[in-house]
Design goal:
Layout lengths: L4 E5 L21 H11 L5 E6 L4 H12 L5 E4 L12 H9 L3 E4 L12 H19 L5 E3 L7 H9 L4 E3 L12 E2 L2 E2 L6 H7 L5 H16 L3
Parallel strand pairs: 1-2, 1-8, 2-3, 3-4, 5-6, 6-7
Helix pairs in contact: 1-2
The structure holds zinc ion.
The site of zinc ion has 5 residues, from loops.
C-alpha cells in the first residue's frame, strides 16, 4: 500500500483580519507560496490537503485556487469561532461543502484537548460537531487535533465520539486508511527545497523516527 502525505494549511496571505495567537504567524504562508504548493500537489493522488483553524482565507483565497486545479481538500473548522473577524462564517462553511470540500472539526475554541474540563469536553467533541452538521447537513466524521496535542485520553474520547479519522501534526507519511493520520504543516518560510523534501517519496528513516514519537503520544497519560 502506497503511503500518503498529509499537508496542513493554516492562514494564507498578509491580511489576517484578526490578532494572531502566539506562534501562529509561523504557519501563515503568502499566496504565491501557497499556489506553488498547490501546483506541486496537482496530479498527486498520494497527497492530501487539510486546512485548520477556519480562517476566512479558506474561502477567499484557497477555494478558488483549489477549484482551478481540480483539487479537493478537508477543512477543519473551529465551530465556536464562526463569524468572528478573519474567520469563516456559517455561510462560508456551507459554500466550501457545496463546492465539494469535506468539512471536519478542529473543535470549538482552539483549546489543548489534553487540558479540558468536563464542560469543555462536551463543547469540543459534541457541540462543535452538532453545529457543523447543522450547517452542512452531513455528519462530521473527521477531526484535526488542535496544536497536535493528544494522548490516550484524547484518543479514547475521539473513538467514543465515533470519529473515523484523526489528523495530528506528527509529520511524515501515513497509511492511507489509518485512523490516526500524521500531517506536515506549511510554514511561513517554506521554499522550493521544502516543497521538494516534503513531497518526495517517503524516506524510511524518517518514518521510523516519527512512528516512535506517535507511540509515545498514543500511550501517554497526562
Ligand atoms: Zn489550529
Amino acid at each position: 500500500m502506497r503511503a500518503v502525505i498529509n499537508l496542513t494549511v493554516h492562514g494564507i496571505g498578509s491580511r489576517t483580519g484578526r490578532t494572531l495567537e502566539p506562534d501562529e504567524g509561523a504557519t501563515w504562508v503568502d499566496v504565491e507560496r501557497f499556489e506553488q504548493v498547490l501546483d506541486a500537489v496537482a496530479g498527486r493522488p498520494d497527497v492530501r490537503l487539510t486546512f485548520d483553524d477556519g480562517n476566512a482565507s479558506d474561502l477567499d483565497t484557497a477555494l478558488p485556487r483549489l477549484l482551478e486545479r481540480g483539487l479537493t481538500a478537508e477543512f477543519h473548522v473551529l465551530a465556536g469561532r464562526l463569524g468572528e473577524p478573519g474567520r469563516l462564517t456559517a455561510d462560508g462553511v456551507r459554500e466550501l461543502a457545496k463546492s465539494g470540500m469535506t468539512i471536519g472539526s478542529h473543535g470549538w475554541a482552539h483549546r489543548d484537548w489534553r487540558r479540558l474540563t468536563a464542560a469543555q469536553v462536551t463543547e469540543e467533541h459534541v457541540h462543535a460537531h452538532r453545529v457543523l452538521e447543522d450547517i452542512t447537513g452531513e455528519p462530521v466524521t473527521r477531526v484535526a487535533v488542535p496544536f497536535g496535542s493528544y494522548d490516550r485520553h484524547v484518543l479514547r474520547r475521539l473513538r467514543r465520539a465515533a470519529v473515523a479519522r484523526v489528523y495530528t501534526s506528527d509529520g511524515g507519511p501515513a497509511r492511507p486508511d489509518a485512523w490516526l493520520q500524521p500531517r506536515t504543516s506549511l510554514r511561513h518560510d517554506l521554499d522550493d527545497a521544502w516543497i521538494a523534501r516534503v513531497l518526495a517519496p517517503s524516506a524510511p528513516a524518517l518514518r521510523l523516527r516519527r512512528t516512535a514519537a506517535r507511540l509515545v503520544k498514543r500511550t501517554r497519560g497526562r
